[in-house]
């Protein structure tokens, strides 16, 4: 079940003149800013806005929970079936892009970016399994 069911640190120091890391181009929601290797750390599912979120990560196979995805700045991605390997393995390769705050790929990574702070990427997919639901993914850069 790959992540296909399936992508804020505001403020600055009071006395500091440094730019906030989240304001730098390297931290932007862009091909360059999002490039890197990520591991899924949380997956929440809400059937509707009126019901509490369910930990969907708990329903995934153990062999999927340790996988990673590398987003390359050239628009390609590599999905690595790391650690405990599934049978058959879930390794994959494809293309991805960013349009505004929307992640688009040929199957593995799709959704609207809710937040990104150069380390943690949170994105969601509406109508993932049924009309009116929302699947929210939290991935941490490795």
- Main sheet characteristics: 8 strands, antiparallel, barrel
The overall pLDDT, averaged over residues, is: 85
Order of helices and strands: HEEHEEEEEEE
Return Rg in Å: 16 Å
Given helix and strand content, the structural type is: mainly beta
User: Would you tell me which CATH topology applies?
Assistant: Lipocalin
Q: What is the count of DSSP helices, taking H or I runs of 4+ residues?
A: 2
> Uncertain regions: pLDDT < 50 for 5+ in a row?
1-22
> Oligomeric form of this entry?
single chain
Number of domains: 1
- CATH top level assignment: Mainly Beta
Number-wise, the strands total: 9
Strand order of the largest sheet: 1-3-4-5-6-7-8-9
Structural features, described:
The protein is mainly beta. It has one domain (21-141): Domain of unknown function DUF4822 (Lipocalin, Beta Barrel), CATH 2.40.128.540. The protein has helices at 31-34, 62-65, and strands spanning 36-46, 54-55, 68-71, 76-80, 92-99, 102-105, 111-116, 120-126, 134-141. It has an eight-stranded antiparallel β-barrel with strand order 1-3-4-5-6-7-8-9. It is globular. Residues 1-22 have low confidence and may be disordered.
List strands and helices in order, with pairings.
Elements: H1 31-34, E1 36-46, E2 54-55, H2 62-65, E3 68-71, E4 76-80, E5 92-99, E6 102-105, E7 111-116, E8 120-126, E9 134-141
Antiparallel strand pairs: 1-2, 1-3, 1-9, 3-4, 4-5, 5-6, 6-7, 7-8, 8-9
């Amino acid at each position: 079940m790959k992540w296909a069911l399936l992508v804020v640190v505001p403020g600055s120091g009071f006395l500091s003149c440094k730019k906030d890391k989240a304001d730098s181009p390297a931290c932007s929601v862009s091909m360059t800013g999002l490039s890197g290797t990520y591991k899924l750390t949380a997956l929440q599912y809400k059937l509707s806005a009126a019901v509490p979120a369910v930990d969907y990560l708990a329903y995934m196979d153990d062999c999927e929970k340790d996988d990673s995805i590398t987003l390359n700045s050239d628009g390609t991605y590599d999905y690595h079936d790391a650690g405990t390997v599934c049978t058959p393995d879930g390794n994959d390769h494809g293309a991805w892009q960013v349009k505004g705050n929307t992640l688009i790929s040929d199957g593995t990574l799709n959704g609207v970016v809710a937040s990104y702070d150069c380390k943690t990427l949170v994105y969601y997919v509406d109508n993932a399994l049924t009309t009116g639901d929302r699947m929210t993914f939290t991935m941490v850069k490795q």
